[in-house]
Structure formats: structure tokens, C-alpha cells
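Continuing the series of single-chain predictions for the mutant panel. This is the parent chain; the variants come on the following pages.
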Amino acid sequence: MHDALSLVPALGLVLFSVPLIWGGSEITTAQAMVFLFLSWAGLSALCGVLSWFLPRRRRKEPPGP
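Parent structure:
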């Protein structure tokens, strides 16, 4: 799971670069912004789902002073 979470920023970089590739096509700025927002929301949801499955570790607090 840690490896999958570390790949999420790379996926985000690829997704956020897609509107740059569209350059001369008939995609409007509004459509590109909707794509970016949905990509951001999807990446956030993906991080939430992946972090849910991370193993729960309980840190032992060091003894007090």
C-alpha cells in the first residue's frame, strides 16, 4: 500500500498534464478546468481509499519525564 500511495503524485502529474496535450483541439477552457477538478477529486478519493487500507500501527508513547 505504501508503494501505491507513493505513485499517486506521479499519476497526478500525468493527469494534470493531459490538458497541455489537448493544445490545438476543440476543448474549451471550461472543459479543461472540469477535467482538472475531477482529476483532483479522483486523486483525493484514491488517496483516501488507499490510506484506509494501510496497516494501523499504534505507536507506544515513551515514558513521561
